[in-house]
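Before drawing any conclusions, I looked closely at one protein, both as residues and as discrete backbone shape codes, quoted below without any editing:
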Amino acid sequence: MPERPVDENAPTSDRTVPCRVVVCRDCCCGTVKVRGDHPAQTARLREIAPVRTSDCLDLCEQANVIVVQPSAVGRAAGARPVWLGLVNDPNATEDIVDWVRAGGPGVADRPGILDLYLIDPPRRVRTATS
């Protein structure tokens, strides 16, 4: 999806709501069960976007799970949250950081490398948002 300009006529609050990131950090994601520096990953994401920590996103077999939620501009363009799994490498975290910094879903093209991490949300989430 090509980068979209910010709508200068939109209310300021709609233009400034950034992408948000949700990280799973309970039984599998963010624990010693999955290799990686989980505090560093969360801290790095917090440098560029608001981050919410979830107790469980119900995809333990895909740990570490990260969900990138579109900004207000991205949502206006029709973007939906992007679910990423097996994000256990600092390079993958940096690819997410770069994408979110560029605007994220609906605003900036997702780096092709992140296609390797795309996962479907759990059924209960798909049902709730469908």
About this structure: The two ends are 22 Å apart (CA to CA). The CA atoms of residues 30 and 62 lie 12 Å apart.
